[in-house]
Amino acid sequence: MAEKLVGQRLKRTEDPRLIKGLAHYVDDIRLPDTLHAVFVRSIYAHARIKSVDVSAASKAPGVVAVYTGKDVSQKIGPVPCAAALPDLKVPDHRVLATSKVYFVGHPIAVVVAHDKYAAKDAADLIQVDYEELPVALDEEKAAQGGPVIHEQFGTNISYKLTAGEGDIEAALKSADKVIKQRILHRRLAPIAMEGRGVLARYYPGEQELTLWTSTQIPHLARTQVALMLGIPENKLRLIAPEVGGGFGSKLNVYAEEALLGWIAMQTGKPIKWIEGRRENIQATIHGRGQTGYIEIGFKKDGTITGFRYNVFADMGAYHQLLTPAIPTLTGLMLSGCYKIPAIQINVTGVFTNKMSTDAYRGAGRPEATFVIERAMDLVAADLGMDVVELRRKNFPAPSEFPFKTATGLFYDSGNYEGALKKALDMASYSKLREEQKQARKEGRLMGVGVSTYVEICAIGPSAATPAGGWESATVRVEPTGKVTILTGCSPHGQGEETSFAQIAADELGVDVNDVAVIHGDTAIVQYGIGTFGSRGLAVGGSAVYLALQKVKEKANKIAAHLLECDAQKVSFKDGKFSCSGKDGKQVTIQEVALTAYVAKNIPPDMEPGLAAIHFFEPKNFTFPFGTHIAVVELDRETGEIHFKRYVAVDDCGNVINPMLVDGQVQGGIVQSLGQALYEEVVYDEQGQLVSGTFMDYALPKASMVPWLELDRTETPTNVNPMGVKGVGEAGTIGATPAIVAAIVDALAPYGVRHIDMPIKPEHIWRIINQKKAGAA
Amino acid sequence: MKKTIHVSVNGVSHQSEVEPRMLLVHYLRDALNLTGTHIGCETSLCGACTVLVDGQAVKSCTLLAVQADGSKVTTIEGFTADGKLHPVQQGFWEHHGLQCGYCTPGMIVAAAQLLERNPDPTEEEIRHGLEGNLCRCTGYQHIVQAVQCAARKMKSKTAVPA
To answer: Is the model's pLDDT at A119 over the cut of 90?
Structure first.
């Protein structure tokens, strides 16, 4: 029997074009006579626009047109927000600012010219006369008063929401002790290495607009942009070509996408806009941005009785696609992997004079995991209990699954102890604690941080998702026997062209190189949802798997016909059908495919062709989990953080391609490390973005990252047919608390219980030196 | 006022009229249509635009095309000029050293330069040597393994057809 490909570390089929520099990202697509767009963006965080003088720019060499908010605001519909929450205030979000600007980077005008240098020159000639207004920046203060951003609302509060089950007041009252802590989740920039970019072309004869855009959601974006432009959805072809990373930042519909389409329709010429990095940090969504207060109640024996999270969530100036929904995901995951009878979240969503927040890898769940994990450490420290023991005490046992949380979820499957034990063994945990004792005797600052996390993936059942949570796949076996898969789940680095082909090759018994996975073009691929929320394999892959079953079922009937065999007696192995009792007679899947299309010898009443479509609706989310352990030593003189070990055991259910899983975990951990130690979008007191380039926004470099020791446990889910859970966000969820806990643990001799991220050497140095000074 | 430059790119000679302010990366991408070289930050911090100019890895987003006059430039497209994958490209493929692929051309060029200078680098030397190239997807570990793999291949001088 041919070796199964599922489970193998197969090299990616998408790689040859990428490593040769022959792939086509938006900016690599060349159309004749393409015009170039450059935006003029607000230099103030909050200001009234008194006038915009475009006269000089309009006359500049090479300029074709200049548009301002006045020209387009009534012609293009508002930038959409898909989140539906009770009493949600949604500001009217036009593609260009009209009377006011609300954040640095807010687009005011767009210059269209024959080349990008000319467009840039002309953009510099546009004179915007501003009247500066006072700013609202801190989400907690802005909720309580001060300058109001959207005057029509009379408040900066966008919504308030309370969720959770159990009697939280009673639970906290019945506790032996309640610990409170303020915790900040600073704003982060997702930073896909390819920024956003749009190329638009309009054919007036066909009345067809084609939009190439760097997006994670081609179909959803097509629907929304068509609505914004008032054109029929079936006259807009949206193509996500090669997409250079997303991390949630391209799970959105942006002003520029609709505006470029509109300009192409006005000028009749192709037009391209490629976001610069400064623009990207100013005007592509940010992630996180919460100021929270935790209260955790517990018994003397370590039993957790209740957990409350009161949070001010920074929305930014506008609601992008999912902005207000992100903190609700935080609320869902507050139980972590613990049995907590009462949980409550109180969210206050607050407008600020900053770019919108939205989904950044993990999208609300890293915040939840961070606060519950920090809370567990605070409890352990208070009780003088080992952090591992406290966690074990509150885990549900594997027999308790599906496990219901007080946040209203049913965790599908889990073996938290299994992953924990494996990680502890890998790290030699008890030896580490011995080593730490010795280190402390020697005056060295060594710390061990443990995070046991669970996350919510495979988003998600449609009932719990704003725009449908299913995914689609078409499988075609072509007349020559080559297999074409059309997936609605358009990837941007996850490797679905390979993992989906592995599944198809196994199911159909064909060579993996005979499988082509096509995605991202709404004119070719049936409607789909997209790639986000660790759903690619668990939802998109399940759709592929089930479409394959339909194809096999039909192929089986054709084979039975050809073999003159009862369909029940046909067996299929390694791409060949045979009939039990008729030894030696075989027919291949390729022969079946040709027969299906030639259609002269298929069963009567059967449709010709060999293809199937499946829309997969998951019945629940999936809940991957794991344990991350960070070991650090701090430099007393400089406050520098040195990683001694980093161990992670993740459980994402069954694994299709372990190499891709490792890649996802490693990348996620390093983004977590960036959040824990380096990254922060900083606005100054006037709302100026001061971390607007890579000089100021510190991404982790290769030299800043330790060797990651990874392993897995595999606890399948029954939510989908392959038992896979999803792994895209595990690293950004599991790692941050482990890293912070390790540093806090190293500083425990100074009485430190919590430090807010990003933790910089300066903070550590101050702790060491202030305490020194205090003691002296 | 345009200037005439003579540049050899991936072994092909070009004579071009360029604006003095045109960046080398724009010249390569827009004038020569070699779009494998990417732009990631425009401030020479991310390394997506790394190419070889006279054998030296440079960030082509902060070099003017006129500064490359008379030079030999190698872009990622030139790494497979003989129809075979460069050992560094093989290493990246075998060890999953890329996900979205956007930083990859620059990363491969920088890694090739690193191995030319130090054919047997330690993990630390690889990490240090690639500090000028940012990757947001991989977390770098597979890139380190890709470069180690390439180092082994270059020692044994194997190559496979592209």
So the answer is: yes
Strand partners for A65: A112
Q: What distance in Å separates the CA atoms of residue A684 and residue A702, rounded to the nearest whole number? A: 29
pTM score, whole prediction: 0.97
Q: Which residues of A touch B126 (CB under 8 A)?
A: 702
Q: How far apart are the first and last CA of chain A?
A: 75
Which distant-in-sequence residues (6+ apart) come within 8 Å of B4 by Cβ? Answer: B15, B16, B17
Query: Is A693 in contact with B41 (Cβ distance < 8 A)?
Result: yes
Assign A315 a pLDDT band (cuts: 50, 70, 90): very high
Chain A to chain B Cβ contacts (< 8 Å): 173
CB atoms within 10 A of CB B54: 12
Q: Which residues of A touch B140 (CB under 8 A)?
A: 666, 670, 701-702, 705
Q: Is B84 on the interface with A (CB under 8 A)?
A: no
> Is the confidence at residue B106, as pLDDT, over 70?
yes
| Distance separating alpha carbons of residues A203 and A201, to the nearest angstrom | 7
Mean pLDDT of A407-416: 97
Beta strands in B11-141 (DSSP E): 12-18, 50-53, 56-59, 72-74
Q: Which residue has the tokens 């959803």?
A: A220
Please name the residue ranges forming H helices in A148-254.
168-173, 218-229
Average model confidence (pLDDT) across chain A: 97
Condensed to tens digits (0 to 9), the pLDDT of residues A348-375 reads 999 999 999 999 999 999 999 999 999 9
Which one of B45, B124, B131 has the shortest CB-CB distance to A694? B45
